[in-house]
Amino acid sequence: DDTKTAPVLGLRWRFFKRHTLRADYFELDRSGAGFSPANVSVCPDGECIELPVDWPVNSFVDVQVFNLGYEYSIQFAEKLNWGVGIGLSAQDFEIGILTEDPLEPGEKIDSKSSFTAPLPTLATVFNYAITDKWILNLGLNWLEVNADLGDTDKIDGRILAYNVGVQWKAFQNVGFTLA
Fold first, then answer.
1. What predicted TM-score, i.e. pTM, was given to this entire model?
2. Please, are residues 69 and 85 in contact by the beta-carbon 8 Å criterion?
3. Distance in angstroms (rounded) separating the CA atoms of residues 10 and 26
4. Chain centroid, CA 120 distance in Å
């Protein structure tokens, strides 16, 4: 099964009519097994080993994400809020590969790496109050990374996060969202 539920802890503080600060935290832990689609170099302990095409590998990616952001409401009315935001996403990655050494059968290769990446984000939000207690929330968050890390290392990636949810305003200044 490729689908996993990941809860998100989020806080929003509207400190002026059109200005909001937000903070979110979530974790994603993914693992898989398959065959390498191309020759892959794995460098445990600084010594690189090339895995041939169709070599069996197990891999994992674990990430903890903490987002901070500011949102400005372009349109703000009693039932409607539409705004844009900027932020910083601190992402703590741990990635790894576990496989058998093709040069020494029976020997395992267990290569892991971890790093933290502070990344800028852009967002747009739309909220519509269906009633005094129920609010429709829509959002789009965008993050893109293009970095050259040396002669041969390069990181390219893009994350688009679409959010659709319903918020129940349980008390004044406290709400719960299902998205």
1. 0.72
2. yes
3. 9
4. 12
